[in-house]
Design brief:
Number of helices: 20
Largest sheet: 8 strands, antiparallel
CATH class of the largest domain: Alpha Beta
Strand content: 25-35%
Low-confidence stretches: 81-92
Radius of gyration: 31 Å
CATH superfamily of the largest domain: P-loop containing nucleotide triphosphate hydrolases
Structural class: alpha/beta
């Protein structure tokens, strides 16, 4: 296996050393279904001698058994490893393959062509330096060609190989090639793709893949392999960008050493250079640079290093060491492109973890500016995002996030959103720009605070969050609780869901998106009342655990008490004096909790009140005891 080198037999150490110092190019293949992506990669692996003899024998046997190419080898079988892919003749998952030549190492990702696998294509493209966009010469530019080219631009790939494949099926006609190139160049100009190299080829026959073909003497440009071996890679340009070192780990093996470890995302750094720590803005000089056990005078982009500084500065994981003359941005609100990657829709207002580089913060999508139709480039209105949707959104974080625009630095400008409950990655994002509010709005420190206001009232601020089905008894019990607290000299206020919907939240309906926003607003008002030193009683169905968890996170650990009014649907329906259940079952009320909209019971509520066992008066006494002891 492996590409042939005389050094393997004569000087294995020299061979390994040469292999170690080769540059690495990451690229993807993309295009419409059956354009020949997997065949192209298989051909590259075959021509670069990256196939074991037993693999080749298996490939030849599988090709005969599948019969897709007659007596010829079906190179696509090298990449389409899933049984479902082989049976359908399509690529479903992202398939990564490694190969090398004398001049360079390569990692290629074969990405799916189907629209429903957009998230897989984004995953493969996120680390790529170059995209090979395949076009079937018989079909020309298709919708998927436009879609994938748009996504390539979206993730910041600026180097595109336009691989006009299957030229053998059009008689190697130059006119066909010229027309496709003309059409694509017009499209690429509109999209803003600046570097497009077109190569006519036949992946199946091997024309212009590694060797120049005699079938197209009119083409004088490079073969695909020649281009891949010589195109500048991203790591070269990364060294020309401002220095960025995201701190992965604070290395403190003993009292005499404190280093800051991470992979240099861009730029270079030398001993004696001044660096600025973001987001704090503090500066110091580099005392030493350590690579493994070796001391360096200079480090370059992509090296994993440890820096020590001349001054004792408070630096922790997630901070970024920057060039002082071109520091990264620190902000808590920004516009970003977002690709939604799970079946459950994204709801504005719901809280997620945002991981950018080595820093993880709480984040909320506060607004969807528009959803992007990646086929037509049209901007569409949207109140939620579904699987594979691409949109421009506004995100707010609970603390400053240090970043660069994605177009300037992929490492410090790209992020993922993570579901707080399942730890699943739900979206990938690319930051565009910090918003003005994040840069100009600074909290003002007043003399009186929550503690002084609460002390004046002789109480400890609390939020009692009453949740349960409609007509479960939330408002009735909360009303009794407030009466008892008032009699005890406590200062309270009830935020009732129905009352708020008549005034503060009258613009909201009962869609899932509006319900998320309803809970977000109630929680924010409750947090202001807590700051005023009050005991706040919230009575709201709040059917989703994620939204109640979002509300809980606005308060200190001991400030939030979830009170689950546990009433079965049948009992709640019997108590329903408003007749809402009856109307919902008759189809007059849509999205009614307990009928055609779910209620997610709390899993770890501080209090659970079973109203089939205790009266409202006794339930109120239990809640008051929880507050007053």
């Amino acid at each position: 296996m492996a590409h042939v080198s005389d050094l393997i037999a004569s000087d294995i150490k020299a061979y390994l050393k040469s292999h170690e110092t080769k540059s690495l190019l990451r690229f993807i293949t993309c295009g419409s279904v059956d354009d020949g992506k997997s065949t192209l990669i298989g051909r590259l692996l075959y021509e670069s001698k990256m196939i074991f003899e037993d693999q080749l024998k298996t490939l030849e046997a599988d090709s005969k058994r599948m019969g897709t190419q007659g007596e010829k080898i079906d190179f696509a079988l090298l990449v389409d490893g899933l049984a479902a892919e082989r049976e359908q003749g399509i690529t479903i998952d992202v398939a990564y393959r490694f190969f090398s030549t004398d001049r360079r190492k390569f990692i290629v990702a074969d990405t799916p062509g189907h629209e429903q696998y957009t998230r897989n294509m984004i995953t493969g493209a996120s680390t790529a330096d170059l995209a090979v966009v395949l076009i079937d010469a018989r079909k020309g530019i298709l919708t998927q060609t436009r879609r994938h080219s748009n996504l390539v631009k979206l993730v910041g790939i600026d180097e595109v190989v336009l691989a006009i494949n299957k030229m053998d099926l059009v008689g190697y006609d130059r006119a066909v090639f010229d027309q496709i190139l003309k059409d694509y160049n017009a499209f690429a100009k509109q999209l803003g793709l600046r570097h497009v190299t077109a190569i006519p080829m036949s992946a199946l026959e091997g024309d212009n893949i590694t060797d120049r073909t005699a079938n197209m003497p009119w083409y004088t440009g490079p073969t695909l392999m020649e281009f891949l071996e010589t195109v500048p890679v991203d790591v070269d340009s990364a060294r020309q960008k401002p220095m960025r070192l995201p701190v992965q780990w604070v290395n403190r093996p003993n009292l005499d050493f404190r280093g800051f470890a991470g992979t240099l995302a861009s730029g270079t750094v030398k001993v004696g250079d001044t660096v600025r720590v973001m987001p704090s803005g503090k500066e110091s000089k580099v005392k030493s640079i350590i690579l493994h056990t070796q001391s360096l005078s200079q480090a370059i982009a992509s090296q994993a290093i440890t820096l020590t500084l001349e001054d004792e500065i408070d630096i922790s994981r997630g901070d970024i060491l920057c060039s002082p003359d071109a520091p990264a941005t620190a902000a808590d609100q920004f516009e970003t492109k977002l690709v939604w990657m799970i079946d459950e829709p994204m709801q504005p207002g719901r809280s997620y973890w945002l991981k950018c580089g080595t820093r993880t913060v709480n984040a909320t999508v506060t607004r969807i500016n528009h959803q992007l139709d990646v086929n037509s480039f049209e901007k569409l209105s949207a109140d939620k995002l579904t699987l594979n949707a691409v949109a421009s959104v506004v995100i707010s974080t609970d603390q400053p996030l240090v970043f660069d625009p994605y177009t300037e630095n992929k490492t410090t400008g790209g992020f993922i959103l993570i579901d707080r409950l399942t730890n699943n990655t739900v979206a990938a994002g690319m930051i565009d720009v910090a918003l003005r509010r994040a840069n100009t709005v600074t909290p003002h420190a007043f003399t009186l605070n929550k503690q002084t206001r609460a002390a004046a009232k002789g109480q400890t601020p609390k939020v009692l969050w009453f949740t349960g089905l409609p007509a479960s008894g939330k408002s009735t019990i909360a009303n009794l609780v407030e009466q008892k607290l008032h009699a005890a000299g406590k200062h309270t206020y009830i935020l009732d869901g129905d009352n708020l919907r008549q005034r503060f939240n009258q613009d909201l309906g009962f869609s899932e998106t509006d319900r998320v926003e309803n809970i977000r607003r109630i929680a924010e008002v409750a947090s202001l009342m807590i700051d005023a030193g009050l005991i706040v009683l919230v009575t709201s169905i709040s059917p989703y655990r994620a939204d109640r968890d979002m509300a809980r996170r606005l308060f200190s650990v001991d400030e939030f008490i979830e009170v689950f009014i546990d009433t079965p649907v049948a009992v709640a329906e019997q108590r329903d004096s408003k007749g809402l259940y009856q109307r919902a079952r008759a189809g007059e009320l849509k999205n009614f909790t307990g009928v055609d909209s779910p209620y997610e019971s709390p899993e770890q509520a501080e209090l659970r009140i079973d109203t089939t066992r205790v009266s409202a008066e006794d339930a109120a006494a239990v809640v008051v005891k929880q507050i007053l002891g």
